[in-house]
Amino acid sequence: MSTAMLGRMTLSCPRRKARIAGFLYLIVIAGGIFAEIWVRGRLVVSGDAAATAHNIMAHQLLYRLGFAAEIFYCACNVPLILIFYELFKIVNKNGALLVVYFSLVGTAVESVSLLLHFAPLVLLGGGHYLSAFSAEQLQALSYMSLRLFEYGFCICLVFFGCYCLVFAYLICKSTFFPKFLAVLLVIEGFLYLTNSFANFLAPAAAARIFPYLAASGLAEVSLCLWLMIVGVNVERWREQAAA
């Protein structure tokens, strides 16, 4: 293999990794939108356990697909964060490790919380062992499991909020990523943390904060598109790696 060809392969490696990360990020974003908006947004009726139970049982396949989508995108988070570590360890290795730890803990919390998302299918499934409960009790338990899932999701967002802030720092210190992505990630991180702690400490205020979470999507979509279309500035990445 010629030296020139080896050089081209070395140059393309960070950009190729970035584009793989962008594709994985796209799966995460699409899976999250499908599960949260298309599934829970359509089937869960706020404050109405009976209507929610009816919707879930009437659209079981859709509900199961939402569960599967979340499990799948949680799995995609693992190789995604590994690629981020490989790209950003040259900036600050400890910072890159923090990004990995915060993301993996958040992903683990979200994955475990998904058991609560699946619980209504078990509770409403008509098993003989559930005959000790009335229909109203099972509906209430199902709705309660979904409420607990929401709090589990808030816990995972605490870790993802910290991940966003550390990742923003790495991007800011890098020479191969645009700084505007760091600004967007800082906003996203603070929105996640504010929303989560508002749910724990002042639930009434959380309802007013929640609509602003939509702005956090701007950071994720921007980062995803940048990774897929532009990738990284390979020359500057190599310069920083050699420094």
Largest sheet: none
Counted by DSSP, the helix tally is 9
Question: How many distinct domains?
Answer: 1
Derived structural class: mainly alpha
Assembly classification: single chain
Radius of gyration: 21 Å
**How much of the residues is beta strand, in percent?**
under 5%
DSSP strand tally: 0
Low-confidence stretches: 1-11
Shape: elongated
- End-to-end separation: 27 Å
**Would you list the SSEs in sequence order as H and E?**
HHHHHHHHH
Mean pLDDT equals 91
Q: Fraction of residues in helices?
A: over 70%
Summary keywords:
243 residues; mainly alpha; 9 helices; disordered N terminus
Question: Nutshell version of this structure?
Answer:
This protein has helices at 3-43, 49-58, 60-88, 93-123, 135-173, 179-201, 203-209, 216-230, 234-242. It contains nine helices and no strands. The chain has one domain (20-238).
Describe what this molecule looks like in 3D.
The chain has 243 residues and is mainly α. The protein has one domain (20-238). Helix content is 84%, strand content 0%. It has helices at residues 3-43, 49-58, 60-88, 93-123, 135-173, 179-201, 203-209, 216-230, 234-242. α1 (3-43) packs antiparallel against α3, α1 packs antiparallel against α8 (216-230) and α6 runs antiparallel to α8. The protein starts with a helix and ends with a helix. The relative contact order is 0.13. Mean pLDDT is 91; it is low at 1-11.
Write the layout of secondary structure elements.
Layout: H1 3-43, H2 49-58, H3 60-88, H4 93-123, H5 135-173, H6 179-201, H7 203-209, H8 216-230, H9 234-242
Helix pairs in contact: 1-3, 1-8, 1-9, 2-5, 3-4, 4-5, 5-6, 6-7, 6-8
